[in-house]
Every structure is written in C-alpha cells, then in structure tokens.
C-alpha cells in the first residue's frame, strides 16, 4: 500500500509538472510601475521602442518589422495598465493618460493609417521649413533631416552630419517601394507632389551651400537624384491607385477620443463648425448693412497691391 501511495504522489507531481510546462510562459513585461519616477523611466524606454529599428542609417518599415512592433506594443500597453497610481497627484495621473494616448496613436497607425504602406509623403527625407508645433504634424519617416534644427550658418561638423544622413536617401528610396502597397489615390497623388517638391528643395539647398560646404552640396544632389527616381516610380504606379483614403467616421471617433482625448465625435464637431459658419455669415451680413452707404471695395488684381494691403492690415 505504501508503494502504491508513493507511486500516486510521484504521478501527481509528474502530471503537475507537465501541465505547468505546457502553459504559455508569461512574458516579462519589465519593472512594475509603482511611482511617478518609474513612469518617467517607462516613458523614456517606450520612446526608444516606438522608433523603428535602423538598418545602416535607414528606418525599417518592412512588413515583418511593423508586424513585430505591433505585436510587442500589446505588452507595453499591458504594463502601463498594470501601473499602480494609488496616491499619485493629478499632474502625475495626467502624465499616465498622455502616455496612454500616445500608445493609442501608435496602435491606430498600425491598425488604420499605416502611413509607411499607404502614403508616399511619409517618406519625405529632407525638410527646410520649421514645424509650427514641437513635433511635425502627421506621420513622417523616422530619422529625416530637419534643417531648421541646425544652427545657421552650418558648422563643418553639422555639415558633415547632414551630408551623411542625406546620402541615406538612396537606400531609403530602394526600400520605400517595397513597403508602399496602398491603393489610396489622393494620398498617392499628393505624396508624389511632396517628393517632387523635396527634389527642388534639395537642388536649391545644394546651390546655396556649394561654396562653403562642397561635400554637403554633393550629398544634397545625390539625395535629389534618389528623390527624382522615387518620384518617377510613384508616377508610374499612380494609375493603379483607385481607392479613397478616408478612414470612416467610426475610426475617426475612436481616434479623437483615445488619441487626442477630445470630448466630441464627428457629428458633434460638424455641428460646431456649422454653427460657427452661420455665425460668420451673420456677422458679415450685419457689416454689409452697417456700411451699405460706403463705396464698394475694389478687387485687387496685382500682387504688389495685394501685398501692400495685407501688410497694412497686419500693421
């Protein structure tokens, strides 16, 4: 009997071990978030994860890379949701919500927008104009050259850095056509225009610095050639793009609520805009009545007078 009991105990332990080994292992989600300092470190780590992997100085937006990022995104979201915010101040809790919203933004990019797949303008590599917000509005390729972020006139060190990054354009525009499989015609047409404008800006930039930084000028022209080749490929594919780019009201409502933390949906925003349009028309009619005895304003038909009137109005 004793031998039978020992056998059953051994069998039970063996069965428990087998069942445990067959269960999926819980992925290590990193250090738990218990304090606001933990959240700050989590945010820094998240921003590193959010950036695509770089291969020889070019961001990897290939299908496999994006699928892997989207799969791992879920683990980051679970870790944030598991944060213990008990006793946190209101500003500290707001920080939690901001990170939550940013994660929702990346989730939306993967599920709906897919700019690396649908929008050629995503691959603009060279910007000459500053952004009017802290980060450029709309999705854009990681690692692009933001000329306004460099002090002017350019130092030799900055010129060398920009030249190195501009020479990556050729590799970028070898990879981009592999990723761009979307069918949205309006995104394709406007994106092609953006790439062509980039080519002109690169040529103008090369001309402006050819005396001070000859190597940078050469790099800019190399990037221009790569940009032209990419624009040519985009133009050749345009006739196959026949779909629309709209994401639908349901997706829009989810986005404004969970990413921009807005309290209004599409229908409510349309109602607000319509109300403001009606208010503007009413104000215009009131002014027309008030000034009905004055001579009518003359239309301006040349650029010189137009600029003069604009400047006078601003002053």
In words, what does this structure look like?
By secondary structure, this protein is an all-alpha fold. Helix content is 64%, strand content 3%. It is built from 12 helices and 4 strands; from the N terminus they run ααββαααββααααααα. It has a two-stranded antiparallel sheet with strand order 1-2. A hairpin with a 2-residue loop joins β1 (54-55) and β2 (58-59). Mean pLDDT is 90; it is low at 1-27.
Structure at a glance:
The chain has 315 residues and is mainly alpha-helical.
State the end-to-end distance. 104 Å
Strand order, sheet with most strands = 1-2
Indicate the percent of residues in helices.
Answer: 55-70%
Gyration radius (Cα, Å) is: 28 Å
Task: Give the class from helix and strand content and strand pairing.
Answer: mainly alpha
Strand content: under 5%
Mean of residue pLDDT? 90
Shape: globular
Sheet with most strands: 2 strands, antiparallel
Number of strands: 4
Q: Count the DSSP helices.
A: 12
Note the run of SSEs as H and E.
HHEEHHHEEHHHHHHH
